[in-house]
Amino acid sequence: MNQDPLFSCAGELANFVVTSNLIDYDLAKNFEFQRCQTALPCSVQPMVYHPTPNRTIVVFIPSPDCTEYPLPEGGDLVLSPEFKFLCTKECPSVSINRAALTLFSSLHDHLSGLKAQLTEREGQLIITGHSLGGSVASLFTLYLLDSMDKKRKCRPICITFGSPLIGNFGLQHSQWNSFFLHLVSDKDPVPGLFLPSSHSQTTVYKPFGTYLFCSELGCACFDNPDLILKLLTVISSEVAGGLLQVVDYGEILRNLKNKAIWKGPQLAGGRFADPFSAGIIMKLETIGFDQTKLLQHNIDIRRMEAEARSLTKKTKASDIKELNDIKKYMALLEWYKKKSKDAKKGYYDCFKSGEFRRDIAVGEFMGHLTTYWEDMVAEAQWKPQTEGASFRTGWLFSGTTYRRMVEPLDIAAFYRDGGTDYINNGRSRHYKLLQQWYEEDAKPPSRDQLDSRKEKVSALLTEDSCFWAYVEEAILSCESLNNANSSPEQRQSSWDNLVMFGEYVMEQIENYAVSPEIFLEESSFMKWWGVYEDYIDTNRNSYSSRLVNFTKRRSYKQYGRRAI
User: Fold this and answer.
1) Residues facing 44 on adjacent strands
2) Distances in Å between the alpha carbon of 541 and those of 1, 487, 493, 545?
C-alpha cells in the first residue's frame, strides 16, 4: 500500500545544501571577503569571483558596522519604482525595507553594469551575502531575474546567511520564490529583527523563498510562510533578549556536516501513526522546537497540518471538478457554434447581435472559462522556469483551443460596445501569453499537414484568434474610405490597411487556417467584402489581388474541398 512521504522536498533540500560543497564554497568566499573589510560607514559592496569558467559567485559584503548594526534606519517599508515589476493583479503593490532599498539604490549604476555582464555569461550563478549583504543580494537577484531571457537554462540562485526580512506580502508572492534559500541560526536574532516580540501583534513583513533553520541538533527546511514567521519571531525574542551578535555560520555548517542529519522514516519509529504529522513535528524537533516549546509560544502545528492536508485534498478535488466544468462549458460553446452556423451567421456574429436568449447565456459560459484560464496562466507564470514550461506544455493544447473558441466572442463584445483597435486597447494579457507560448513551439505546416487541414477544415476553428478583430478594423477602414469628411491622408492610410488585410486573409486561406464559417452569407466578413467590392468596382476597377480574384470567382464555395 502506498504511503504519504514523510518529508517534503524542502526537507530533502536541507540535507543537500548542508552536505554539498556548493554552500561551503559560497560561505567561504562570503566571509573571506568580509574579513578583509575595514571599519567603514554602514555600506555594502559586491565582489565577483569565478572559481571555475562555468561558475560565478557574486558576494555582497557588508562593512563591519552593517554586520553588527544592520539596517540602522529601522523597519520602514516603502514602495519602489525599481521593483514595480514584482506587482501582479493579485498583489498590486510591493514594499521594500527603506534601508536595504537605499543601499541597493546607491549601488544602482554599478549593479546595472554588473547585471549586463552576468546576463551575457553562461554557467552557474550564485548570489550570496551575510546580514545586510544578504538583503541587498536578494534585491539584486530579483533585479537580475526580471531582466534575464526566460529561455535561459541557468538562472541565478540566491543564498543568504542571517539576513533580515526585506519586504511585504507582495514580495512573498514573487514568481521566483524557488530561487532563494535563506539560512538562519537559532542563535541569530537578525532575521527576525523587525518582527514583534508577541504573537498577538501583527507585522507587515513577510518571508519569501525557502528557509533553512540550523541548530546544534541539526537543520530543517521550511517553505510555509506562516510557520517561518512564527519561528523567526521566537528565535528573535529568545536570543540574548534580542541583542544582536555575530553568528559564525561557517562553524555551524561544519558541525552539521559531521552530524547524522535526520534521514526520514526510520527515525520516526512508532511515535507517530501519521507520517504527515511526523514530517512536520520531527523537522521542528531537529531545530530545537519540541512540544513544550511549541505550546509555550502558541504554535499550533495541528492547525497548520490540517490546513496543509485540507489544501492538498481540496486542490486535487477542485482540479478534477474544474476540469470537468471546463469540458462542459466548451461542449456548450460547440453546441452554440453549430446552432449559429445553421442561422447562416456564424457564432461570432450571433453573439455580437445578441438576438436570442442563448446568445446571452453564452456570456456565462465565457465567464467561467475565462476565470479558469486566467488562473491557469497566472499559475504558469508564477512557477519557476523549468516547472512552468512543463506545466504550460501539458495544458497548451487545451489553452489554445479555448483561446481560438472564446477570444472571438470577447472581440465581438468589444466592437459591439463601440471599441476600436482591440489588439492594443482591449486584448487580455492571458490571451497574449497563451498565443506567445503556442508560437514559441509552433512550426510552419508541412505539405502533409496542409493536406490534412484541407480534409478537416470544415471542423476546424480559425487559428488566429484575433481574426475577427482584423475584420472589424477592415470594416472601419471601408467606412473611412466612403466618408466624405475623411482627409486624403486618412483615405490612403485606410486603403493601405485594406491591402495588407487582403494579403493576410489570403495567407490564412491558403494555409487552411480559417474556418469556412467566415464565408457564411450573413457573416461580418462577407458583409465587409460586399462593401469593399463595391468600393473597388466604383473607385479602383483596375485593382486586382489574390483575395479579390479568389472572392469574385466565388472560390470560397469550394474552400476545403479542393486545392486553391
Assistant:
1) 62
2) 79, 22, 19, 12
